[in-house]
Design a protein that fits this description.
Elements: H1 2-9, H2 16-29, H3 55-67, H4 72-82, H5 85-91, H6 98-112, E1 119-123, H7 130-139, E2 144-151, H8 154-167, E3 175-179, H9 182-190, E4 202-207, H10 219-234, H11 245-256, E5 257-268, H12 278-287, E6 288-294, E7 310-317
Parallel strand pairs: 1-2, 1-4, 2-3, 4-5
Antiparallel strand pairs: 5-7, 6-7
Bound molecules: S-adenosylmethionine.
Organism: Fervidicoccus fontis
Keywords: Endonuclease, Hydrolase, Methyltransferase, Nuclease, Restriction system, Transferase
Protein name: Restriction endonuclease subunit M
């Protein structure tokens, strides 16, 4: 019956570990909900599909929820390891490790030290929400107006939603997680003509974009995302032969970041010394003040299992170009 539940909810892979993570997520969300059935009306990844379950399947979920000791924090790390190798590589499911999120969030705290207004936090390549939950924990719920992100894989998206809800003390209106592709969702919300988007632009982006090798992406998809980025106004920064998924992802980040907003991102170090990052470097020079580029002394990467040499870039958008907002 567990496998049938996972299939009906679109959760992959269909195995006991996935089921346990699903159950731990439901247990956490139940701290803020009336009953399991009512979750089907929540605007959250996967949950509307609870409508497809029979009453005996719902009863099984309820009884499993009583028996789990898995914490949502553990799920945030473990969920990436369940993804089959091929898919993990394709989507770059290599989440930011604690050393990275510690550094990112200390900088956010400093950035906000003299700012009284609440902020909008965003990660358009959300994974299980590690960067944003760490930030909320560091700066405090009271500083956060809204937190949102996009993630294409259903179970990580659910874990991210639940983790964010939990770190926001159950404030449902303040949390949005879109199950989807950022190259589809961001243009839908933030393209001209500028209709008011239902989500606000970011004051702070904390991310680690997918860095799948360009040649491993399907040709049709490559063409599609190139034209998406060109239409968003970044054509002058793109030489079609010299692109990478991570630089196109960073143009999307630029699209949704407010002026004077803070960008902190893990990026492959190669972005800054190969021709593939040339266009993004031009954008950074024109529009941003670069505050720091940090590498780790003790590890090559800031992402779990990635194996890439990575850095963390800290930049402020706009003419002000100072770290203090
Ligand atoms: C390197 S991981 C980082 C996850 C998270 N930001 C973190 O720092 O832990 C990249 C994430 O981007 C997601 N991803 C891949 N392609 C995407 C796309 N087109 N739109 C949105 N997210 C995507 C992957 O599923 C993965 O969770």
């Amino acid at each position: 019956m567990k496998a049938r539940i996972l299939k009906k909810l679109g959760i992959e892979p269909v195995n006991n570990e996935s089921f346990q993570i699903f159950i731990a997520s439901i247990k956490t969300i139940m701290e803020y909900a009336g009953d399991v059935e009512s979750l089907a009306n929540w605007n959250a990844p996967i949950l509307s599909d609870l409508n497809k379950l029979s009453s005996s399947e719902i009863e099984l979920i309820k009884s499993e929820v009583q028996n789990t000791n898995l914490s949502i924090k553990e799920c945030q790390v473990e969920v990436q390891k369940l993804i089959p190798q091929e898919k993990r590589k394709k989507f770059a499911v290599y989440y930011t490790i604690q050393q990275g999120t510690d550094l990112m969030t200390s900088i956010v705290k400093e950035f906000l030290s003299s700012r009284k207004e609440k902020v909008v936090l965003v990660d358009p390549f959300l994974g299980s929400g590690s960067t944003l939950t760490a930030a909320i924990e560091k700066i405090g719920v009271e500083k956060v107006e809204k937190v949102w992100g996009i993630e294409p894989l259903p179970l990580p998206a659910l874990v991210a939603y639940v983790s964010l809800l939990h770190s926001m003390n159950g404030k449902r209106d303040a949390v949005t997680v879109i199950l989807g592709d950022a190259f589809e969702e961001i243009p839908k919300m933030f393209s001209p003509p500028f209709v008011q988007s239902k989500l606000p632009k970011a004051d702070i982006i904390l991310t680690n974009p997918p860095f799948t090798r360009w040649k491993y992406l399907e040709k049709k998809y490559r063409e599609h995302i190139l034209s998406v980025i060109e239409k968003l106004g970044y054509k002058k920064y793109i030489t079609r032969k010299e692109v990478s998924l991570q630089t196109l992802s960073m143009f999307l980040c630029d699209r949704i970041l407010n002026n004077n907003g803070l960008l902190i991102s893990v990026l492959p170090a190669s972005t800054f010394y190969t021709i593939y990052g040339r266009g993004y470097k031009s954008l950074l020079k024109e529009k941003y003040g670069i505050y720091a580029m940090v590498e780790s002394k003790s590890r090559v990467s800031f992402s779990e299992d990635s194996g890439f040499k990575e850095i963390i870039i800290v930049a402020v958008k706009g003419s002000n170009k100072k770290l203090t907002a």
